[in-house]
Protein backbone atom coordinates (compact mmCIF):
# COMPACT_ATOMS: atom_id res chain seq x y z
CA UNK A 1 0.00 0.00 0.00
CA UNK A 2 1.32 3.47 -0.89
CA UNK A 3 1.91 5.74 2.13
CA UNK A 4 -0.38 8.70 2.44
CA UNK A 5 1.16 11.93 1.11
CA UNK A 6 2.66 14.07 3.85
CA UNK A 7 2.10 17.79 3.76
CA UNK A 8 5.44 19.08 5.07
CA UNK A 9 4.13 22.60 5.32
CA UNK A 10 1.36 21.43 7.64
CA UNK A 11 3.80 19.40 9.76
CA UNK A 12 5.51 22.64 10.67
CA UNK A 13 2.34 24.06 12.11
CA UNK A 14 2.11 23.59 15.82
CA UNK A 15 -1.41 24.28 16.93
CA UNK A 16 -1.51 25.56 20.47
CA UNK A 17 -5.06 26.37 21.54
CA UNK A 18 -8.13 27.63 19.69
CA UNK A 19 -7.09 31.03 18.40
CA UNK A 20 -9.24 34.11 18.57
CA UNK A 21 -8.35 35.56 15.20
CA UNK A 22 -9.72 35.20 11.70
CA UNK A 23 -7.89 36.19 8.54
CA UNK A 24 -8.70 39.82 7.65
CA UNK A 25 -8.51 38.91 3.93
CA UNK A 26 -10.48 35.66 3.62
CA UNK A 27 -12.11 35.36 7.10
CA UNK A 28 -10.93 31.77 7.71
CA UNK A 29 -9.42 30.99 11.15
CA UNK A 30 -5.84 32.05 11.78
CA UNK A 31 -3.52 29.52 13.40
CA UNK A 32 -0.34 30.35 15.20
CA UNK A 33 2.82 29.01 13.59
CA UNK A 34 5.47 28.86 16.28
CA UNK A 35 8.46 28.20 14.02
CA UNK A 36 8.10 31.59 12.32
CA UNK A 37 6.29 33.57 15.04
CA UNK A 38 3.40 34.29 12.73
CA UNK A 39 -0.25 33.51 12.11
CA UNK A 40 -1.46 31.79 8.96
CA UNK A 41 -4.82 30.93 7.43
CA UNK A 42 -5.73 27.95 5.24
CA UNK A 43 -5.35 30.17 2.17
CA UNK A 44 -1.74 30.92 3.04
CA UNK A 45 -2.12 34.50 4.18
CA UNK A 46 0.59 35.26 6.77
CA UNK A 47 0.72 37.82 9.57
CA UNK A 48 3.85 38.27 11.66
CA UNK A 49 3.87 38.69 15.40
CA UNK A 50 5.85 41.88 16.08
CA UNK A 51 8.67 41.70 18.59
CA UNK A 52 6.51 43.71 21.02
CA UNK A 53 3.92 40.91 20.80
CA UNK A 54 1.13 42.58 18.80
CA UNK A 55 -0.16 41.50 15.37
CA UNK A 56 -0.92 43.80 12.49
CA UNK A 57 -4.19 42.52 11.00
CA UNK A 58 -4.93 45.64 8.95
CA UNK A 59 -4.11 44.80 5.32
CA UNK A 60 -2.84 47.72 3.25
CA UNK A 61 -5.97 47.61 1.04
CA UNK A 62 -8.17 48.51 4.04
CA UNK A 63 -6.03 51.47 5.08
CA UNK A 64 -7.61 54.77 4.07
CA UNK A 65 -4.44 56.72 4.88
CA UNK A 66 -0.77 56.01 5.55
CA UNK A 67 -1.14 56.35 9.32
CA UNK A 68 -4.82 55.90 10.17
CA UNK A 69 -6.21 56.72 13.62
CA UNK A 70 -5.05 59.30 16.11
CA UNK A 71 -1.84 61.21 15.37
CA UNK A 72 1.31 60.76 17.46
CA UNK A 73 0.69 64.20 19.02
CA UNK A 74 -2.84 63.26 20.10
CA UNK A 75 -1.60 59.96 21.49
CA UNK A 76 1.21 61.64 23.42
CA UNK A 77 -1.23 64.16 24.88
CA UNK A 78 -3.71 61.42 25.87
CA UNK A 79 -0.97 59.28 27.38
CA UNK A 80 0.40 62.15 29.54
CA UNK A 81 -3.05 63.14 30.68
CA UNK A 82 -4.41 59.66 31.40
CA UNK A 83 -1.27 58.49 33.15
CA UNK A 84 -1.51 61.45 35.52
CA UNK A 85 -4.62 59.62 36.81
CA UNK A 86 -7.34 62.19 36.04
CA UNK A 87 -9.72 59.58 34.58
CA UNK A 88 -8.98 56.97 37.22
CA UNK A 89 -12.56 57.19 38.63
CA UNK A 90 -13.76 56.03 35.22
CA UNK A 91 -11.28 53.14 35.15
CA UNK A 92 -12.44 52.17 38.65
CA UNK A 93 -16.12 52.24 37.64
CA UNK A 94 -15.39 50.06 34.59
CA UNK A 95 -13.51 47.58 36.78
CA UNK A 96 -16.38 47.48 39.28
CA UNK A 97 -18.85 46.65 36.49
CA UNK A 98 -16.57 43.84 35.32
CA UNK A 99 -16.39 42.49 38.87
CA UNK A 100 -20.16 42.64 39.29
CA UNK A 101 -21.11 41.01 36.01
CA UNK A 102 -18.27 38.66 35.10
CA UNK A 103 -17.39 37.22 38.51
CA UNK A 104 -18.88 33.80 37.69
CA UNK A 105 -17.02 33.36 34.40
CA UNK A 106 -13.64 31.62 34.97
CA UNK A 107 -11.66 33.52 32.33
CA UNK A 108 -13.83 36.16 30.71
CA UNK A 109 -12.67 37.55 27.38
CA UNK A 110 -12.77 41.33 27.16
CA UNK A 111 -12.02 43.49 24.13
CA UNK A 112 -11.27 47.23 24.31
CA UNK A 113 -12.27 48.60 20.88
CA UNK A 114 -10.25 51.69 19.88
CA UNK A 115 -8.02 51.10 22.90
CA UNK A 116 -5.38 53.69 22.00
CA UNK A 117 -2.29 53.05 24.11
CA UNK A 118 -4.18 50.60 26.32
CA UNK A 119 -4.58 52.78 29.43
CA UNK A 120 -7.91 51.22 30.46
CA UNK A 121 -6.72 47.70 29.83
CA UNK A 122 -3.76 48.23 32.19
CA UNK A 123 -5.95 49.89 34.79
CA UNK A 124 -8.53 47.10 34.67
CA UNK A 125 -5.81 44.52 35.28
CA UNK A 126 -4.74 46.41 38.40
CA UNK A 127 -8.14 47.45 39.74
CA UNK A 128 -10.33 44.39 39.15
CA UNK A 129 -10.94 41.73 41.79
CA UNK A 130 -11.10 39.13 39.02
CA UNK A 131 -7.64 37.60 38.74
CA UNK A 132 -8.11 35.75 35.45
CA UNK A 133 -9.18 38.19 32.76
CA UNK A 134 -8.31 37.51 29.12
CA UNK A 135 -7.73 41.09 27.94
CA UNK A 136 -7.62 42.14 24.29
CA UNK A 137 -7.25 45.53 22.64
CA UNK A 138 -7.71 46.78 19.09
CA UNK A 139 -6.89 50.11 17.46
CA UNK A 140 -6.32 51.29 13.92
CA UNK A 141 -3.28 53.34 14.96
CA UNK A 142 -0.18 51.14 14.80
CA UNK A 143 1.92 53.37 17.06
CA UNK A 144 -0.72 53.21 19.76
CA UNK A 145 -0.89 49.41 19.62
CA UNK A 146 2.89 49.12 19.65
CA UNK A 147 3.01 51.19 22.85
CA UNK A 148 0.10 49.26 24.41
CA UNK A 149 1.74 45.88 23.70
CA UNK A 150 5.07 47.03 25.14
CA UNK A 151 3.41 48.10 28.37
CA UNK A 152 1.16 45.09 28.95
CA UNK A 153 2.56 41.74 27.88
CA UNK A 154 -0.34 39.94 29.61
CA UNK A 155 -2.89 41.40 27.15
CA UNK A 156 -3.19 40.74 23.41
CA UNK A 157 -3.24 43.68 21.04
CA UNK A 158 -3.91 43.92 17.32
CA UNK A 159 -3.87 46.66 14.71
CA UNK A 160 -7.27 46.50 13.01
CA UNK A 161 -10.30 48.63 12.25
CA UNK A 162 -13.43 48.40 14.36
CA UNK A 163 -15.29 48.33 11.02
CA UNK A 164 -13.92 44.80 10.44
CA UNK A 165 -12.72 43.19 13.62
CA UNK A 166 -10.77 40.03 12.77
CA UNK A 167 -11.95 37.85 15.66
CA UNK A 168 -14.02 34.67 15.63
CA UNK A 169 -17.80 34.87 16.08
CA UNK A 170 -19.13 34.83 19.66
CA UNK A 171 -15.63 35.12 21.10
CA UNK A 172 -16.01 37.82 23.76
CA UNK A 173 -17.90 38.13 27.03
CA UNK A 174 -17.59 41.90 27.14
CA UNK A 175 -16.78 44.65 24.65
CA UNK A 176 -15.58 48.05 25.81
CA UNK A 177 -16.39 51.09 23.70
CA UNK A 178 -14.75 54.12 25.30
CA UNK A 179 -14.93 57.22 23.12
CA UNK A 180 -14.23 55.10 20.10
CA UNK A 181 -15.82 54.42 16.72
CA UNK A 182 -17.62 51.10 16.35
CA UNK A 183 -19.67 48.98 13.99
CA UNK A 184 -22.92 47.55 15.36
CA UNK A 185 -23.03 44.39 13.26
CA UNK A 186 -19.43 43.56 14.18
CA UNK A 187 -20.24 44.11 17.87
CA UNK A 188 -23.17 41.70 17.53
CA UNK A 189 -21.05 39.09 15.75
CA UNK A 190 -18.17 39.15 18.25
CA UNK A 191 -20.22 39.02 21.44
CA UNK A 192 -21.52 35.81 22.93
CA UNK A 193 -25.23 35.59 23.66
CA UNK A 194 -25.73 37.24 27.07
CA UNK A 195 -22.42 39.06 26.50
CA UNK A 196 -22.09 42.70 27.52
CA UNK A 197 -21.40 45.92 25.67
CA UNK A 198 -20.08 48.66 27.96
CA UNK A 199 -20.17 52.09 26.31
CA UNK A 200 -18.62 55.21 27.80
CA UNK A 201 -19.82 58.57 26.48
CA UNK A 202 -19.39 62.11 27.78
CA UNK A 203 -22.00 63.21 30.31
CA UNK A 204 -23.73 66.63 30.08
CA UNK A 205 -21.17 68.44 32.29
CA UNK A 206 -18.05 66.83 30.85
CA UNK A 207 -15.18 69.37 30.65
CA UNK A 208 -17.70 72.18 31.14
CA UNK A 209 -15.17 74.81 32.28
CA UNK A 210 -12.93 74.07 29.29
CA UNK A 211 -15.86 74.39 26.92
CA UNK A 212 -16.88 77.69 28.53
CA UNK A 213 -13.53 79.14 27.50
CA UNK A 214 -14.05 78.01 23.89
CA UNK A 215 -17.74 78.25 23.01
CA UNK A 216 -19.79 81.43 23.39
CA UNK A 217 -22.90 79.48 24.27
CA UNK A 218 -22.08 76.30 26.17
CA UNK A 219 -24.93 73.78 26.12
CA UNK A 220 -25.42 70.61 28.11
CA UNK A 221 -25.41 67.70 25.71
CA UNK A 222 -26.51 64.20 26.50
CA UNK A 223 -24.70 61.94 24.08
CA UNK A 224 -26.06 58.41 24.41
CA UNK A 225 -24.50 56.03 21.90
CA UNK A 226 -27.05 54.06 19.86
CA UNK A 227 -27.22 50.37 20.73
CA UNK A 228 -27.12 47.55 18.19
CA UNK A 229 -30.36 45.66 17.52
CA UNK A 230 -31.32 43.04 20.13
CA UNK A 231 -29.33 44.73 22.87
CA UNK A 232 -31.06 45.73 26.09
CA UNK A 233 -29.76 48.37 28.47
CA UNK A 234 -29.16 46.95 31.95
CA UNK A 235 -27.70 49.95 33.76
CA UNK A 236 -26.85 53.59 33.16
CA UNK A 237 -24.29 54.98 35.55
CA UNK A 238 -22.95 58.50 35.81
CA UNK A 239 -19.39 59.06 37.06
CA UNK A 240 -18.44 62.67 37.87
CA UNK A 241 -15.53 64.39 39.58
CA UNK A 242 -13.61 67.64 39.62
CA UNK A 243 -10.00 67.74 38.46
CA UNK A 244 -7.36 70.48 38.69
CA UNK A 245 -4.77 69.77 35.99
CA UNK A 246 -1.70 72.02 35.79
CA UNK A 247 -0.95 74.18 32.76
CA UNK A 248 0.78 71.49 30.71
CA UNK A 249 -1.87 68.92 31.58
CA UNK A 250 -4.58 71.35 30.47
CA UNK A 251 -2.85 71.66 27.10
CA UNK A 252 -2.75 67.86 26.85
CA UNK A 253 -6.43 67.66 27.75
CA UNK A 254 -7.31 70.24 25.11
CA UNK A 255 -5.31 68.38 22.48
CA UNK A 256 -7.10 65.08 23.11
CA UNK A 257 -10.60 66.58 22.74
CA UNK A 258 -12.50 67.39 19.55
CA UNK A 259 -12.88 71.03 20.59
CA UNK A 260 -9.11 71.58 20.21
CA UNK A 261 -10.00 72.36 16.58
CA UNK A 262 -12.30 75.17 17.69
CA UNK A 263 -9.85 76.87 20.07
CA UNK A 264 -8.14 79.96 18.67
CA UNK A 265 -4.64 80.92 19.85
CA UNK A 266 -6.16 83.40 22.32
CA UNK A 267 -8.51 80.76 23.75
CA UNK A 268 -5.67 78.26 24.10
CA UNK A 269 -3.64 80.91 25.89
CA UNK A 270 -6.55 81.69 28.24
CA UNK A 271 -6.96 78.00 29.08
CA UNK A 272 -3.25 77.66 29.79
CA UNK A 273 -3.01 80.81 31.91
CA UNK A 274 -6.19 80.37 34.01
CA UNK A 275 -5.37 80.10 37.73
CA UNK A 276 -6.08 76.69 39.30
CA UNK A 277 -8.84 75.97 36.83
CA UNK A 278 -11.24 73.40 38.28
CA UNK A 279 -12.73 71.24 35.53
CA UNK A 280 -15.69 68.90 35.84
CA UNK A 281 -15.38 65.43 34.34
CA UNK A 282 -18.61 63.59 33.69
CA UNK A 283 -19.08 60.18 32.06
CA UNK A 284 -22.10 58.02 31.28
CA UNK A 285 -21.48 54.28 31.40
CA UNK A 286 -24.15 52.30 29.60
CA UNK A 287 -24.13 48.56 30.14
CA UNK A 288 -26.17 46.59 27.62
CA UNK A 289 -26.62 42.87 27.12
CA UNK A 290 -26.99 40.92 23.88
CA UNK A 291 -30.03 38.66 23.80
C1 LIG B 1 -10.86 59.37 21.24
S1 LIG B 1 -9.67 58.05 21.10
C2 LIG B 1 -10.11 57.04 22.51
C3 LIG B 1 -8.99 56.15 22.95
C4 LIG B 1 -9.29 55.36 24.23
N1 LIG B 1 -10.46 54.49 24.06
C5 LIG B 1 -9.49 56.31 25.38
O1 LIG B 1 -10.65 56.56 25.75
O2 LIG B 1 -8.50 56.83 25.90
C6 LIG B 1 -10.26 57.14 19.71
C7 LIG B 1 -9.36 55.98 19.34
O3 LIG B 1 -9.99 55.26 18.27
C8 LIG B 1 -9.01 54.94 17.30
N2 LIG B 1 -9.70 54.74 16.02
C9 LIG B 1 -10.15 55.67 15.15
N3 LIG B 1 -10.78 55.07 14.11
C10 LIG B 1 -10.72 53.73 14.34
C11 LIG B 1 -11.19 52.57 13.64
N4 LIG B 1 -11.86 52.66 12.49
N5 LIG B 1 -10.95 51.36 14.18
C12 LIG B 1 -10.28 51.23 15.35
N6 LIG B 1 -9.82 52.28 16.05
C13 LIG B 1 -10.03 53.52 15.57
C14 LIG B 1 -8.01 56.08 17.35
O4 LIG B 1 -6.74 55.73 16.81
C15 LIG B 1 -7.97 56.38 18.85
O5 LIG B 1 -6.99 55.63 19.51
ZN1 LIG C 1 -6.70 34.28 4.55
Gyration radius over CA? 21 Å
SS-based structural class? alpha/beta
The major beta sheet can be summarized as: 8 strands, mixed
Give the tally of structural domains.
Answer: 2
CATH evolutionary superfamily of the largest domain: Vaccinia Virus protein VP39
Count the helices. How many? 9
What is the topology, as strand order, of the major beta sheet? 4-7-6-5-8-9-11-10
Number of E-type strands: 11
Gap between N and C termini, in Å?
54 Å
Order of helices and strands: HEEEEHHEHEHEEHEHEHHE
Low-confidence runs of at least 5 consecutive residues: 3-16
Mean pLDDT: 91
Anisotropy-based shape: globular
Q: Helix amount, in percent?
A: 25-40%
Distinct ligands, ions and cofactors found in the model: S-adenosylmethionine, zinc ion
Tell me what portion of residues adopts beta-strand conformation: 15-25%
The CATH architecture designation of the largest domain is 3-Layer(aba) Sandwich
Describe, in plain words, how this protein is organized in 3D.
With 291 residues, the chain is α/β, with parallel strands linked by helices. It has 2 domains: 42 residues, no CATH class; 219 residues, 3-Layer(aba) Sandwich (Rossmann fold), CATH 3.40.50.150. It is 27% helix and 24% strand. The strands form 2 sheets. Strands 4-7-6-5-8-9-11-10 form an 8-stranded mixed β-sheet. A 3-stranded antiparallel β-sheet has the order 1-2-3, with no helix packed on it. 35% of the residues are buried.
